[in-house]
Design goal:
With about 325 residues, the chain is an alpha/beta fold. The chain has 14 helices and eleven strands.
């Protein structure tokens, strides 16, 4: 178990982040163990085909980043967020700037008593370049869709925090998470026991699409970061076939009825267009009408505007 003892200042400084590099690195688990990631099989098939065009040396490095026994990833390739919506280039820059001694120690921790592969005895900058090339092949084509799910999750958690408090947010992350008397306890797999006083350093909560459970890097010097499985992963690769109630279609028109019925969770214009197979401009026009009618509301999450049904919209659907 990992135990974080949180004070009032830490709870007040609890923040959410969405990390493109985290999705890039943890997606390697799905390629290694596809049988554990059945929901991602459409992405796995497409990515394996795309990786056939990548340099075999890059593919070998990517495979080696996952420890053969524990299945861990080196901490330096999953840096803690410094902002809610970091750019990939910013995150890769932090990987490249990792002191070589620290990178070597993180890799050694992954491999424990096993020999470290020679192809990982390269500079952090070289590994960052490999991850960047992998991102462009495997993740970038799907990033708008992925980001839509992640940002919808962050909005849900932020609303839950405002409405029900930190305890509701923590216990909703994973059924094995425990929150009692200021202690946040996370199941982190067998063989890892760690306790620390957070002592005013705050807390980051980061949703992920490929994380198998709540996971956390352990360090007494940096703000704790808890990564958890995002809501809505099961819908990530689906193409929607939304059939609104016929009476609703007669009332507001079929395109708006389909859009309203499809808004069963916060989503961006881009994500809605992807789900419905139409252009973002068409979605934006219809959302404007629904918003003026009081059936949908919008809110901003970083640089993205998310739409959701209002209570009136829910009742109408």
């Amino acid at each position: 178990m990992i135990t974080y003892r949180l004070g009032v200042e830490d709870l007040a400084d609890m923040r959410f982040a969405c990390s493109p590099l985290l999705e890039t690195t943890t997606s390697l688990w799905a390629l290694r163990w596809p049988e554990r990631y059945v929901l991602h099989l459409p992405w796995i098939r497409a990515t394996r085909a795309a990786l056939a065009e990548l340099d075999p040396a890059d593919v070998a490095v990517l495979r080696a980043l996952i420890g053969s026994t524990r299945g861990w990833l080196p901490d330096f390739v999953t840096p803690r967020p410094t902002s809610p919506l970091p750019d990939l280039s910013e995150e890769l820059g932090r990987v490249a700037d990792t002191p070589p001694a620290r990178a070597a120690a993180d890799i050694r921790a992954v491999y424990a008593a096993e020999p470290v592969p020679d192809l990982l005895r390269r500079s952090p900058a070289s590994i960052a370049e490999t991850l960047g090339r992998y991102w462009h092949r495997a993740v970038a084509p799907h990033w708008p869709r992925m980001r839509g799910v992640l940002e919808a999750d962050m909005l849900h958690r932020a609303r839950l925090l405002a409405r029900d408090g930190a305890a509701a947010v923590f216990t909703d992350l994973d059924h094995r998470v425990r929150w009692t008397e200021g202690e946040l306890r996370l199941y982190a797999g067998a063989g890892l026991d760690y306790e620390v006083d957070v002592a005013g350093r705050g807390l980051w909560l980061v949703p992920g699409l490929f994380v198998p459970q709540t996971i956390s890097q352990v360090s007494p010097d940096e703000p704790p970061t808890v990564m958890y499985l995002a809501r809505g992963v099961g819908t990530l690769w689906e193409t929607a076939d939304i059939r609104p109630p016929e009476a609703l279609a007669e009332l507001v028109g079929r395109p708006r009825a389909v859009l309203l019925a499809g808004l069963d969770g916060p989503a961006s214009t881009t994500e809605l267009a992807r789900r419905l197979g139409v252009t973002p401009s068409a979605v934006s026009q219809q959302l404007g009408v629904l918003r003026r009618a009081g059936l949908v509301a919008r809110t901003r999450a970083g640089r993205v505007v998310l739409y959701a049904r209002t209570e009136l919209g829910d009742r109408l659907v």
